[in-house]
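Have a close read of this protein, sequence plus structure tokens, and explain what the tokens say about the fold. Thanks in advance:
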Amino acid sequence: MTNRFFTLTAVLSLALVAACSNPEKTGRYLIDPPSPPGRVANQLGPTVELRDVSLPEYASGQEVSWQTPDGAVRSTPDNLWADNPQRAVTLTLARAISDVSGAAVIAEPWPLGEPAGKRLEVRVEKALAQADGIYRLTGRYFVADDSGGGRNHARSFDISVPLADDQPQTIAVAQSTALSILARQIATLDGPGTTFVTRTPADPFALDPML
């Protein structure tokens, strides 16, 4: 009787593990912005290196997150991003900016022999499907030009995309749309907020080849 009990317990445990690990019960969602309807005026220059995008902890995890009416940010292992979120957002944003501007925007590390003309850093403060039915993407981006006399930009962004529901596929589409909007703003150095422009001091030795 004891052996039969342990056998039955083992069978039930294996069935439970199999059910929990069933890949058909796990959804994996892509970050994939739609093709831009047309190009915008490129204000970045021909080549730009995009640093790894900084994401909040809840947005950098593998599970798709959303906010519930009590204000909590929740997720479930049944709904996952198809790729590492930081890698996916960085590569997706680089491609989206390139597509909409014509600039060669490449995620770090820079793979070409000649250095990029500018460096782009994006720090996301919020990337969340909110309880109010809005997907919100906020933060700041920085464009640095290390050449003598180059212009350096720091600008904020605050993008809202309506959500029809809180389903993971809807959240994935909204995030992709928000990144597409951000790409257009970065390409034109535009968007809501304030732009701070500084100038990199010119190299005094570059003017005199004898020094």
